[in-house]
Amino acid sequence: MSFFNQDQIYQIESCLSLALKRGASGAAIEANYEESYACGFAAGRLKHTGTSESLRYKIEVIRNGKRGSAGGNIFTELDKMLERALLLADNGAKANFDSYPEPGSNYARIKQNCSSVARLTREKLVEDCNILVSRLKELDHKLDIDAGAKRSQSQSIFAHTGGFLKKYNYSQWSLGAGFSKLSGEDMLFAGRGRSWGKVNALYDLAYLGDKLIEDYNYGKHIADFGGASLPVILSPALTMSFLSPVVGALNGRNVYKGISPLKDKLGKNVFNADLSIKDEPHIDYAPGSSSFDSVGLPTRPALLIENGVPLMFMYDYDTAHLTGNCSTNHIGCAPYNVRIRPGKIHSKELLANCKEAVYIQSLLGFGQSNLANGDFSCNLAVAYLVRNGEIQGRIKNAMMAGNIFELFAGDMQISADLEANSKMPHLFFPSINIATKNK
Amino acid sequence: MKDLFFAALANCPADYAEIRYEYFDGSEFSYRGIELETAGSNSRSAGIVRACVKGGWGICEFVNLDNLRQKVLEACADAALIGKETTMLAEYEPIPDLISKAEFINDFRGISYSDKLALIKAYNEQILGANSDIESSQVSYTERFRQIYFASTRGIYHYKELPQVILAMSAIARKDGQVQRSAESFSSKDDYNIVLNREAAAAELAQRASDLLKAPKCEAGRHTVVLRPDFAGVFIHEAFGHLSEADFLFENEPMQKLMQIGRKVGVKELNVVDDGTMPGMLGSQPVDDEGTPTQCTELIRNGELAGHLHSLETAGKMKAKPSGNARSIGAGHSPIVRMTNTYIKPGKLSKEELFAGVDDGIYACGLYGGQTMMEMFTFSAAHAFRIRNGKIAELLRDVVMSGNVFETLNNIDGIGNDLSIINRGGGCGKGGQSPLPVTFGGPHLRIRDVLIGG
Hints:
The structure holds two protein chains of two kinds. Chain A is an alpha+beta fold. In chain A, about 25% of the residues lie in helices and about 35% in strands. Chain A has helices at about 5-20, 80-90, 115-120, 120-140, 205-220, 235-250, 250-255, 315-325, 345-350, 405-410; strands at about 25-40, 45-65, 65-70, 95, 145-160, 165-185, 185-195, 230-235, 275-280, 300-305, 310, 340, 355-365, 375-385, 390-395, 400-405, 415-420, 425-435. In chain A, strand 2 (about 45-65) and strand 3 (about 65-70) form a beta hairpin. The N and C termini of chain A lie far apart (about 60 Å). Chain B is an alpha+beta fold. Chain B has two domains: about 1-215, 2-Layer Sandwich (PmbA/TldD fold), CATH 3.30.2290.10; about 220-450, no CATH class. In chain B, helix 3 (about 115-130) runs parallel beside helix 4 (about 200-215). The longest helix of chain B is centred in the first third of the chain and has 16 residues, at about 115-130. The chains are: A alpha+beta, B alpha+beta. Chains A and B meet through strand 2, strand 3, helix 2, strand 4 and strand 7 of A and strand 2, strand 3, helix 2, helix 3 and strand 7 of B. Strand 2 (about 45-65) of chain A pairs parallel with strand 3 of chain B, so a sheet runs across the interface.
């Protein structure tokens, strides 16, 4: 796919030159065009299908030590939006750097675009959704079943007055299904999905179907549970949610603003020694991968936490200048692809070792907790009671509360096996307080 | 535009088709701590064609109006490929031509960037200097102006303008490794004055963030809770409003039975409406994004389920009247069934009478967020107080409520005689479309046996 042709590249370069002529000391333009095809099943039937195109661009300028930005999607208005960005810069935020840096060297070569995605035809996507829906209908014809699939191809261009210009393509597919089961006033919801930049082994209908059937079988009976402080096993989907406040606390801007609980903790034994987290920006076809940051400097893998010790804070170019640190080339001071070092025990063994525990598949309302502080208090959306290593049934009307930093500092175990798409393990915590209506 | 749209839709090979095209213009300024972090603006346009053939929908999203007829035909062809049933879209009395221009009390577009920045700078400095516990702040100003053009094969052509201005402020306090946040927002569709003179609110939230550092957590378990009207509003929105959206029901027979009109769902004093016609409210507009006139829909009348919220399709399939609740956050999105302004109608008890019935309980105020999985809901109070012997006592932090909607609506044992519905920033999220401007509110509400996470 090629959307940005030589004329548009010339327009972008002209706009950057005009910015300098208009008194800017630096300017950058990022533009993105995407084409996609999607289909959706509702109530077990193919309900909609269609195409989508989107275009957006953003101009950032620095003038007289201040920053301004303007965005749009009408390419002929590029110069008009430049004027708006300059006007905003006159009133705008302090720029912590005056000009964009010259391009760096040794950029990683990351595969982000694969023709296998373009070969996912409309018929193939519809048929694959149909296969998932049919498996669930066979399981229980009363289920309310949704499914959806999408393929997208994008082209982006990033250029700035420091001499950086890169045009690149990327592709992505997504495939997922879910169901709701109503019994009286009880509703069981389950959903599974995957997404990647290349059609490979992750595009696995059998896996998604198996997992949904597992969700159904585990969840169809409600367990008798009175609430208690119990061992908890988190699903891989939840592991990333629990890691987010920890990773957010390594955001250099949050540290500078004083809102990071890890502000003074670099080099100290803060977490359980089994916890090691790294950032991997160069994984082929991973949605978060990038070979360069927000000013075009090359990205690098980084070890964020090793054996429970936070090793570094992440800084983008602007925050690095603000705080007097070196940039770690992290866009928005955030990681690209978080990876956690696996433990030594398989999740099946973790489960088998539990005399009584709760296995949590998903939570409701986790994001509305005071996560900056690590505190959480939320519903168990889909969770199961485990007795003697066996899942007994689903837990209803229960809430879980605790503090993430305290949990990661205490006893915990990390599974050796990782979920194939997210590369996240299961986590085991020996005791979390779970309240129910009954207790 | 009208001629262009109708030419593209002429003789279109579908049971129904529509074109929606939108120009969006907006700006945002935000302080985070002492620094101004953002001074940005966005101006864009996009459109969508939806076509329905034998019950199947074809969609074509686009960025410019070139070859519009071709885009209509593409959507029709997609719809024809999948449609295998009968198109059942509700009929209603349409407004053939509608031009709805924004009417302002004080138009934010006439105010300079520098004045807006000076305003939020002053609030930000006030929060940062409020007390020694304040570690950081976030103060932002946002303005949006949407111009939406719509035409359908039913021969209607509508143009509407939807403006919005938002001021959002938060204070972040820190002491001994503890971080607490307090936030407030104000919004209006027609009056820039809403963001002016908010010094008292800035002072109050800074003080509260500091006070929350010392506040204890509420112990987990069942409590009697009095909800302040803003919290009562988010409760009814999350707990019941989403269940009333008929796109969850219209092709799901068990759900239809569960949400059957006439079913007793709460105490008999409970009355709930969704009203998209309320003047000045963020959820209001003359017509929805399928061109259906908005209306006031009774959802619960005297404790019994009285109505659902509908799009053309859900109303058609459920043999109901369309209620004007098909809404989209922007032109690149299909309209789905959404709430507008949802509130609990006032009851008979004074606030004092509500509190008098509580020896040991929780007074939940403000909203931090809410989520629902249909019958199960959860929402967090911005802050809360203990109620002891009918009096408001100490401040509490991290109060998160959870429950089953039907059980909870039957556990309401007191409805206040006050009513408050306030325009705020933020909005509702559903189906990947967020934030949609909505409002919610109600009177003070007392509920027994509410599960608090602790």
